[in-house]
Amino acid sequence: MADVGASHELRELRDRLCKLHGVKSSKEVLESKTTLFRRVVHLMVAGVDVSELFSAMVLAAAPDEPALKKLLYLYLCTYAKTNPDLALMTVNTLTVDCANEDPTIRRSALRSLCSIGTEELADYLVPPLQAGMRDRSALVRSVAVVGTWKLHRIQPELVEHSGLLEQVQTILQQEMDPQVLANAMAVVDRLDKGHGMHGQAFVYALLNRLSEFSVWGMCTALQVVAKYQPGSEAEMFDIMNILEEPLSSVNSAVFLAAAKVVLCITKDLPHVYQQVLQRIKTPLLTFASGGPPAAQYVALCHVHHLCQLQPMLLNQDFTRLFCRDTDPTYVKLKKMMVLVAIANEQNVYDVVSELNAYTLDAKQVTAVAAVSAIGQIALRNFNATGIVERLLEYIVEGRNHVVSAAVVCVREVFRKYPGAIAGCTEELRSLDCQALDTVEAQAAGLWIMGEYSEYFDNVVGVLDSYMERLDRNLDPRLKCELLVTGMKLFYKDPPQYNSVLQDLIKGTIDDTNPIVKDRALLYYRLLHQPMSSGYEVSIIKIGEQQNPATTMVEDAGEDQDWLNSLQVVSTPTASVL
Predict the structure, then answer these.
(1) Of the chain's two ends, which shows fewer C-beta atoms within 10 Å, N or C?
(2) What is d(CA 203, CA 222) in angstroms, rounded to the nearest whole number?
């Protein structure tokens, strides 16, 4: 019944569109056409096939009405991509409109023509694009420049052979409209690696016209300027003086683009570079501590990266990065990463105290990240024993997810600083591995028990409780950790733990998981070797590991490409916590 109703409505729409063909244009006729066109587009978006109305739509469209043309172009382009029979007629219609007297219609037609994006019709795009870049209207020239890049994505060779790229480069040197110039810079940067844009004359022309650009155009222009290296210190300071206004912009994108320029041109002068960092620090912290959350997060990513380059940069301003109750979770997590990066001997107490408050957050992910951040700081040996005591308090009194995160952190600290166990034995006696709510935490608890079994009273009972679950879908990671723990205990006290280890190997040597099975076989064979040899191989001592949260960025003064780019947001260090 629905198909019958749709067919009836399509026939009615076709009849009404045909009646309006050739009718003298008036306000009432225009309103009727607009209503019909919107209904057709609505049906198309709803999934109804209205391709049979193609001819009626084209004939009914007013030749000089931009609003109707936009609806028509949406309809035409939708079916041109999926219906080859209609594609050529669509191209013909759009090509005719590219020569319309109204620049708004010419722009819409050219944009729609370039958005079809089929390789078979690529050749038809070249003449309209060539004419568009010579058009007297800046609106059309702007769309034609971007259309060249769209065509390049379909057929790169066609752009090179047709001379379109040369036309864009000509626009780059002669264009007076800032929006067209910004588009041309973006296209040349992608298609020709910025050829012709890094000369002194062109860069100076951009700097002198910065105020004419939109925000996007200004960011594009500053991105070009960032690749220019001044020939002298005097020239460098001239550029910095011109950029003083963008550096004071309230728009974070403009500020970051300008900051990238000044950092790039001063990277070879350390004393000036440090002054620039101090100059951009305050506005960067302002963006990182307020404004829209998305912009705040991007600013925090830059702050985090700068703190890795210059750990003492925010030594006096770290309190501005404390979390607020109204901050989204992802902003809180990034702020905690920054606090870990800037923690030092002078501020470690204040930073850890602040992170300690976050462990009470209602959201588990925030509380767990806070505990992990405290553990990261402990790994940097800022009074590690005192921080470990705080982590042990979580194990005794914390909520389940906090306890689990604390156990993982304590394991990492003990691996790096074995002596930190001193004075912590009483708190560890209350550790219940099976009560922990994550596999990683349970594995960490087993590691601690195996490494420091002399401080625990019921190690055998814990292992027996896990062995009862070997055949009941126990996580493979726990099985592997049980084998390691069993081997450690056996080499410490063979008579006491001999039967435990035998049961462990017997229960895992035929495991369906290949990793568990291989490890059980390895340990079975090790037991046939002299004890010292087996111990050295199976009980792996983990040496000091470099803390990823505080790893200094290599070539810090040589590469500033991370500034104002997606690299600073997607860097692997973003997943430390």
Answers:
(1) N
(2) 9
